[in-house]
């Protein structure tokens, strides 16, 4: 398989000497759910994938994204997006300003950037939110903005780190639908404690620990 995210013979040794081993591939449009008890190494795997593993945690194996070996690349060159439980927005910028922030280097011209951000906001049901102060957003709206931000960065793979766990039941369902419908062309790795998240994702489940 050339397209997608491959973890080839990945082995990570945790500080207490436990080993995590993964040899798997996620196709574009597939969601692989990673489950396991607290401390089993789920966040450590995400750190390894984005290239942010602490020096003291040894990593072996290769990470291949769309045929490109990204194992040794710095975080910003990997083209992997990540959505967290609690995404932080710059408080001194508007919602639109936050979203435009990451675009400055690759899209020329203020009007073009603004149009691109407005398209992204429309796409996630936040039409007219460009000038809003992030402090006035609800938890669900913040998660939508975080989703728009990660999609605007045009990742080739997406990691989801418990992105639904702070939301109430109804919002959670809506956010799952939104995330999975907007990421159909990407390989997605979902870290979750919630079996319902994994069920909604509809893909395979890998258990750690
Ligand atoms: N930088 C570090 N220094 C020391 N220990 C670490 C470091 N990073 C992770 N660990 C340890 O590695 C183990 C795995 O942690 P990790 O955060 O990956 O687990 P997790 O499955 O994501 O847990 P949770 O579900 O609680 O988020 C834990 O025992 C943790 O204490």
From TrEMBL:
InterPro entries: AAA+_ATPase (IPR003593), ABC_SmlMolc_Importer (IPR050093), ABC_transporter-like_ATP-bd (IPR003439), ABC_transporter-like_CS (IPR017871), P-loop_NTPase (IPR027417)
Pfam families in alphabetical order: ABC_tran
GO molecular function: ATP binding; ATP hydrolysis activity
Boundaries of every ABC transporter domain copy: 5-208
Keyword vocabulary terms for this entry: ATP-binding, Nucleotide-binding, Plasmid, Transport
Gene3D superfamilies: P-loop containing nucleotide triphosphate hydrolases
Protein name: ATP-binding cassette domain-containing protein
Native source organism of the sequence: Qingshengfaniella alkalisoli
